[in-house]
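Key result, reporting period 2: structure in, sequence out.
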């Protein structure tokens, strides 16, 4: 039976944030809210937790996880960011964007795109997520919570509990969450390239 934590979506209780972070540190899998949808997350270096997430989502070994960071400073530890790219990210972070960037040596090889050596990274605009990341002092390895056969993510914490309470270690109830995915932007070329239009507007990157 998983730990079920109701955390206030605007003023997260630090005691509960610490409990959630402890689950991650101990190698567990958590369900947590973001600014786009609920997600599955685990510790950056925890291969067994990563495999559990793959089993829950029925993902193949080539599916790319996202690194969820607390700010641009942390993001720059795991991705190579030029000054022009940094300015673009700063104008739209935090927010519902996933950026494809060239990975640094800090990123475990199994998380990189096998040929391009890139990584998807994002900084969500969600107080609960940001509080957990601050407590961890490192990113979460994450994927959106879409169950096999479903078209959209689960949005109701009670539904999530019914489906996953025996398959994850903690479920964070942050209220109803959205179901629209992040906007994915490839930042590795000369100009930003829109790979998936989601919740975030691509317009600010037109310049």
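The corresponding designed sequence is given below.
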């Amino acid at each position: 039976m998983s730990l079920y934590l109701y955390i206030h979506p605007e003023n997260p209780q630090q005691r509960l944030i610490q409990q959630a972070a402890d689950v991650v540190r101990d190698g567990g899998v958590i369900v947590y809210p973001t600014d786009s949808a609920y997600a599955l997350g685990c510790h950056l270096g925890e291969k067994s937790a990563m495999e559990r997430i793959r089993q829950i989502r029925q993902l193949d070994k080539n599916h790319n996880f996202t690194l969820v960071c607390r700010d641009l400073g942390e993001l720059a530890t795991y991705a190579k960011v030029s000054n022009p790219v940094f300015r673009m990210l700063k104008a739209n972070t935090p927010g519902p964007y996933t950026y494809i960037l060239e990975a640094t040596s800090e990123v475990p090889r199994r998380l990189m795109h096998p040929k391009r050596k890139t990584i998807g990274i994002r900084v969500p605009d969600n107080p609960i997520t940001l509080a957990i990341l601050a407590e961890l002092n490192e990113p979460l390895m994450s994927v959106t919570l879409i169950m096999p056969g479903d078209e959209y993510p689960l949005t109701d914490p009670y539904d999530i509990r019914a489906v996953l309470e025996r398959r994850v270690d903690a479920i964070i109830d942050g209220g109803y969450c959205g179901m629209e995915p992040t906007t994915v932007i490839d930042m590795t070329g000369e100009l930003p390239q829109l790979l998936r239009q989601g919740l975030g507007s691509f317009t600010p990157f037109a310049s």
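The chain has a mean pLDDT of 92. Helices lie at 14-25, 47-57, 72-78, 83-91, 127-136, 157-164. This case is discussed further under Risks and Mitigation.
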